[in-house]
Design a protein that fits this description.
alpha/beta; Rossmann fold; 5-stranded parallel beta sheet; 3-stranded antiparallel beta sheet
Length: 229
Amino acid sequence: MSVSRLQVAIDGPAGSGKSTVGARLAERLGCRFLDTGLMYRAVTSCALHRGIELERGQVLADLASKLHFELGSDVLLVNGRPAGAELRSPQVDANVSIVSAHPRVREIMVSRQRQLAEDDCIVMVGRDIGTTVLPSAPAKLWLTASPATRAKRRLTDVFGGQPGRTTGDIASTLNRRDHLDAARPTSPLRRATDAIVIETDGKSVEETVREALAAVRSRIHPTSVSDAT
């Protein structure tokens, strides 16, 4: 397999560092990067702005089918506009698992994600990539960390240390999201049996990226994958 057709699937619970590590890994490999969570967040954000009840699965599916997604040089474009910080707002964060649990919404998103991965080198992160979206990906990683570490990261990255928010509060929110995602009947959050587990506790982003790169190389012939940097 040449690097031009490489697919790397990265899954794991919320706050495990998937997006940050995945983006850096894609850069190292010279691949495109897709955080699939942003696609579900885009549907959620649009539904919230339109006042759509989040239990109405078919209405949300119709909305999802009308959104256009494409990968720019370094960013996901939603209806031609870069996915912005509003997609990681606390309100979206609290509701995205409800939206993404609807089977028809997932069916539409998985189809779009597979289309974006066609004929290209891509690092894709999410919660069902190795099991559902790209089950044949040669390199699958599962990133994880302790609840305390994940809560601390989310408090800093998403909530920006907002007054009144604590790691305990965030940990409860993350546990709720992970439970909802793991319990949904369609494409649940689950580690692929052939995924390499990477614990990110106590490691810098660079250390984790190096470990991820080594894991990818262990699954691909060394001459097929080189560090672009």
